[in-house]
């Protein structure tokens, strides 16, 4: 199949009201960047656009929270995020802003064109209004009592405690999340996109695949199918708000375009600005049928990019996305990444804490990308991937070859094999072709983990070849063969410098420098990059080992950011408020799931992992506070066959006298550790709900102390 004439590639516009974390990068930006770097390397015509999403109620509420203006908020986070992307090597052709004049004009005209074509329906409805804040309230900004379970903090669209879908009218005693007062009802007029009229077309395009040239990922197609099969309804695409692109119609004062219409049009305005800056035409990138349009997003944006935006594009005769390879979510150390709870690895902080190790993060996030299911970031795994793969395999192979070439041949490429290749050499060099084939096939299928693994496989083969032939021993007996082995190894390293470029751009650049090759990396499968007699440069260190202490600092920092106490009324409110802002309900194309009452599942384990844990039933016999430690209680626990001292950080949750007689489940074979000078001999299991409230996990009545739980 021949390549498309040109590509338009987008990554979700991040909301300019907070910094980026690793989940965002793994979801929508690293895959887009790898894809585009690869396309550029192959000489394809591609534009890669992104930018800050700077409209919507989330921005105005964040400004109120920080006691500043919306403009100050977006200026601040636009710069932070733009710099973080740049430092991590996410190489957009343009990182634009939806607050720019060009965007405002583009979005406004786009709306007007659709309005003139009669695409919209006009409706007047009653909506909740906060008189103190003089604004209408989106569903998520209204809280009240759930009619189903009595939860006092149910949202206007859903109760997260019992999972019931609600409308604001169903809430008992509704109140505004802004003023905390009961809202009033007011009439307001809005414009609706009649998605129901496009249902048949969406069914044939998405479900039957008519007019599509690529298969969509199972998770993407599945989510779309379920939306379509539930039936589509007209969707309001304007809002009552003073921050955004004004609705360009008479009688629409105080109304702006819904941020979910506004944001994806940001891809188009970014392309326009890029065209202006580079003397290009923007139209072919959005209107020519020979252009391939690809959206990289997180799974929370699927409906907008696969259903709503395509309807808007189709209605204005723009091209439709060829593919939307949405990723699932990345979790962190067993919990959902959360901006509001500060459970995150922030990109700008990583870059500060690990200078010069941008590629290590890229490598780890790609090797762990949530392509088909949720994945998990752990610091221990990050360290292991660096030390065991980047340092021990890729780094080690390159370093040994470079050092030996310097030592034996003054850094000049030695004489390669002259007659028929030995079988072991032929097998080794055949790995180069295999790597090009596997990497390009995987990238074209949006399988970036597999692609990067094929890159590492070539390095692994190199390390193995070197370890088997041992040129450092061979040099004493067979100088001719030594030269051949190092020559062959250098050819592989030359190709690694090309193949690493989409994944590890800094490493590729270092390799190019060491090898004395042009920094402009092509996709040259056949070339002999390093002929005999070619002078190399001095070797540089590619990767360095990350020590346990460095990792411990990060783990401690993560846990130190966590509140130990049950949230007070005040902090609960602010958590809810930030959840609303960050959950993307009102817009924002970021890829973090927040606001759910449930933590994500941890990665699957095998039975043997579980069988190592010795769980026992027990009873708390005594409990007391630990001196000079606000959070700790010291328990004496009866396990039937013995009594244990266990120290637990629950003093903010339980009074000592409450705990005496409490039945508990114990991890009995956890290595003892000292807390405030007391040796704790095990761990009491506790359940934690989404508000941080703790519960003992008690065995059923009659379970004897010491009984094994399995
Ligand atoms: Zn409920």
What keywords describe this structure?
Isoleucyl-tRNA Synthetase, Domain 1; four-stranded parallel sheet; OB fold (Dihydrolipoamide Acetyltransferase, E2P); binds zinc ion; 21 helices; alpha+beta; Methionyl-trna Synthetase, domain 2; 710 residues
Give me the count of strands. Answer: 25
Span of the ends, CA to CA: 55 Å
Give the helix tally: 21
> Using only CA atoms, what is the Rg?
29 Å
Compute the average pLDDT: 89
Largest sheet: 6 strands, antiparallel
Structural category is alpha+beta
Note down, in words, how this protein is organized.
Among the domains are: 117-240, Methionyl-trna Synthetase, domain 2 (Beta Complex), CATH 2.170.220.10; 409-514, Isoleucyl-tRNA Synthetase, Domain 1; 607-709, OB fold (Dihydrolipoamide Acetyltransferase, E2P), CATH 2.40.50.140. Strands 16, 17, 18, 19, 22 and 25 form a 6-stranded antiparallel β-sheet that branches. It has a 4-stranded parallel β-sheet with strand order 3-2-1-13. The protein has a 4-stranded antiparallel β-sheet with strand order 5-4-9-10, with no helix packed on it. The two termini are 55 Å apart. It is of the alpha+beta class. It is built from 21 helices and 25 strands. The protein is flat, with a radius of gyration of 29 Å. A hairpin with a 7-residue loop joins β16 and β17 (633-638). The protein binds zinc ion. Zinc ion binds next to loops. The site of zinc ion has 9 residues, from loops.
């Amino acid at each position: 199949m021949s390549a498309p004439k040109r590509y338009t590639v987008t990554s979700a516009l991040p909301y300019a009201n907070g910094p980026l974390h690793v989940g965002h990068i793994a979801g929508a930006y690293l895959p887009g960047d790898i894809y585009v770097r690869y396309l550029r390397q192959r000489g394809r015509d591609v534009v890669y656009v992104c930018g800050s999403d700077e409209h919507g109620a989330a921005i105005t509420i964040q400004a109120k929270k920080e006691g500043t203006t919306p403009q100050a908020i977006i200026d601040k986070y636009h710069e932070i995020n733009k710099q973080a992307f740049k430092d991590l090597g996410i190489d957009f052709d343009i990182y634009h802003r939806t607050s720019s004049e060009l965007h405002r004009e583009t979005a406004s005209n786009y709306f007007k064109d659709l309005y003139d074509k009669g695409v919209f329906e006009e409706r007047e409805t009653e909506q909740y209004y906060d008189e103190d804040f003089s604004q209408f309230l989106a569903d998520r900004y209204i809280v009240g009592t759930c009619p189903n379970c009595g939860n006092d903090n149910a949202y206007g669209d859903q109760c997260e405690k019992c999972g019931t879908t609600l409308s604001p009218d169903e809430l008992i005693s509704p109140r505004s999340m802004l003023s905390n007062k009961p809202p009033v009802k007011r009439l307001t007029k809005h414009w609706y996109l009649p998605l129901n009229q496009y249902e048949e077309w969406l069914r044939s395009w998405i479900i039957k695949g008519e007019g599509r040239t690529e298969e969509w990922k199972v998770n993407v197609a599945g989510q779309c199918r379920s939306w379509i099969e539930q039936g589509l309804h007209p969707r309001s695409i304007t809002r009552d708000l003073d921050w955004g692109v004004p609705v360009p119609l008479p009688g629409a004062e105080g109304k702006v375009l819904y941020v979910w219409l506004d944001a994806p049009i940001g891809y188009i305005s970014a392309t326009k600005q890029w065209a202006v800056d580079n003397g290009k035409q923007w139209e072919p990138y959005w209107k020519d049928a020979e252009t391939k349009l690809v959206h990289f997003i997180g799974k929370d944006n699927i409906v907008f990019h696969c259903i709503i935006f395509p309807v808007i594009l189709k209605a204005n005769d723009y091209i439709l996305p060829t593919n939307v390879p949405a990723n699932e979510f990345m979790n962190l150390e067993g919990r959902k990444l959360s901006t509001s709870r500060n459970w995150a690895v922030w990109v700008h902080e990583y870059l500060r804490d690990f200078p010069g190790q941008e590629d290590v993060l890229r490598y780890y996030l790609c090797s762990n990308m949530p392509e088909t299911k949720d994945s998990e970031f752990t610091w221990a795994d990050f360290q292991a991937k660096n030390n065991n793969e980047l340092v021990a395999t890729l780094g080690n192979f390159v370093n040994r070859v470079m050092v030996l070439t310097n030592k034996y041949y003054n850094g000049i490429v030695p004489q390669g094999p002259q007659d028929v290749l030995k079988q072991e050499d032929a097998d080794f060099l055949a790995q180069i072709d295999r790597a090009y084939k596997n990497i390009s096939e995987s990238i074209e299928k949006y399988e970036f983990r597999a692609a990067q693994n094929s890159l590492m496989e070539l390095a692994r083969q190199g390390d193995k070849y070197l370890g088997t032939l041992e040129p450092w021993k061979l040099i004493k007996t067979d100088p001719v063969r030594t030269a051949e082995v190092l020559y062959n190894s250098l050819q592989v390293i030359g190709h690694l410098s090309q193949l690493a470029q989409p994944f590890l751009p800094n490493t590729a650049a270092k390799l190019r420098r060491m090898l004395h090759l042009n920094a402009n990396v092509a996709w040259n499968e056949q070339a002999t990059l390093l002929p005999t007699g070619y002078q190399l440069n001095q070797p540089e260190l590619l990767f360095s080992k990350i020590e346990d202490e460095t990792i411990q600092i990060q783990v401690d920092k993560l846990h130190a950011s966590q509140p130990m106490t049950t949230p007070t009324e005040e902090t609960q409110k602010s958590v809810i408020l930030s959840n609303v802002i960050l959950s993307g309900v009102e817009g924002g194309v970021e890829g973090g799931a927040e606001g759910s009452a449930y933590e994500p599942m941890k990665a699957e384990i095998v039975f043997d992992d579980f069988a190592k844990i010795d769980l026992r039933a027990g009873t708390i016999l005594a409990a007391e506070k630990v001196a000079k430690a606000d959070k700790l209680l010291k328990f004496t626990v009866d396990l039937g066959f013995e009594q244990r001292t266990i120290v637990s950080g629950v003093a903010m949750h339980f009074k000592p006298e409450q705990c005496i007689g409490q039945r508990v489940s114990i991890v009995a074979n956890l290595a003892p550790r000292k807390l405030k000078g007391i040796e704790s001999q095990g761990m009491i299991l506790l359940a934690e709900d989404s508000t941080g409230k703790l519960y003992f996990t008690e065995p059923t009545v009659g379970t004897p102390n010491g009984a094994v739980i399995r």
